[in-house]
Structures are given as C-alpha cells and as structure tokens.
From TrEMBL:
It is a multi-pass membrane protein. The chain crosses the membrane at residues 12-38, 50-73, 85-112, 132-156. GO terms for cellular component: endomembrane system; lysosomal membrane. This is MARVEL domain-containing protein.
Amino acid sequence: MLGDRRNNKIACCSPTTAGVIVAVIEFILCILSVYGLIRNFDLFGQSYFLWFLIGIISILIILSVIILLCYAIKTDNARLLIPHLFVQIFLILFLIIVALVVFLLIVFGAHRGIRRLLGHDSYHMSDEDTEYLGLLIILIYLIVAAIEVVFLYLIYKLYLYLKDYTRVQMNDPFMNNPVYTANWQVPTKRAPNGYGSPDSGDIYPYGP
C-alpha cells in the first residue's frame, strides 16, 4: 500500500515535496497578510485595531502550524500534521462565512454594516466604494479559500503517506515474514535415532 502511494505522485512531485511547496506558499501569504494588516491599520486607524489584533494572532497560529508541517516532513511524523489540517478547515469555513455575510450585506444595501464588519466604520467612504470593497473582499476570500481547499487535499495526502511510512518503520517486514513467525517443532527422542526422514514426512531437523 505504501508503495502505491509513493508511485502516485501529486502534480509530478512526491507528497513531501508538495508539503514543502504548501509551507512556502503559506509563509508568503502570511507575509503579505502582515503587510496588509499594517497598511490598513495605518490607513483606518483605531477603528481597525480589533481586526488588526485578530489578524496578527491568526497569522501567529498559522506560522506555528507551518513550522509543525516542516518538522513533520523532516521527522516523518504524521501526527504533527493534524493541527495544520484543523487550522485549514477552520480557515476555509471562516473565509466562506465572511464572504457570504458580505454578499448578503451588499444585496440588502447595508453598506454601513460592511464598513463595520471590515473595521472601517469611522472611515469616510461612499456607498459605491464600500460596495466595490465588499465585492473585492468576496473575490479575494473565495480565491484564498479555494487555494486552501487544494492545500488541504495535499496535506491530507501527505498525512496518509507519512502514516503508512511510520507503520512500515514500526513493523519490520522481515521479522513479520512467515518463515520467522512459524511455530517450528522439534521431534522427540522417541523417533528412530532422535531424527526423522524427509521421505517419510517427518519433522525437521533431520539427522546425519
């Protein structure tokens, strides 16, 4: 089973290589997110502080699971990937829910609600600009959610791969071979000369 997964490469690369690529891209996204948070906080001021704080905490959590991802690949430890999988699932759901809420606010014309949701409540912005910002947020969030769905699939495949690899390491295929696990019997001294004959179907070992 492990051999089959090794042969089934993901996009012309092994599961571990795919995991490294995911870690690099997620790290780049974290850097871009930090830049966006700092820029928005400088632009919108104290009204954006709560979102800024939530964003920084979220990025720290994501960075921690990225580190665990890299360490899991290095040590072949599938269990270290579980936090990354949970964070990805939560992030995907969060992005989709926020995009859906913003869409509903746009449909019902609740422009002030959009500004409040995005932390721009006290910033002067026309309803037209608010609607444009809302549509942009929906587009970005859905794109990131789609990327994370792909990453979730890749990390899950890596989890299965490392899990099988660990199972193989813990169970030595040579020691589990039937030739080592068979219950060999030694003939009693009641047999002639204490030995048997292969021609008579006697039990090993044979005598001289």
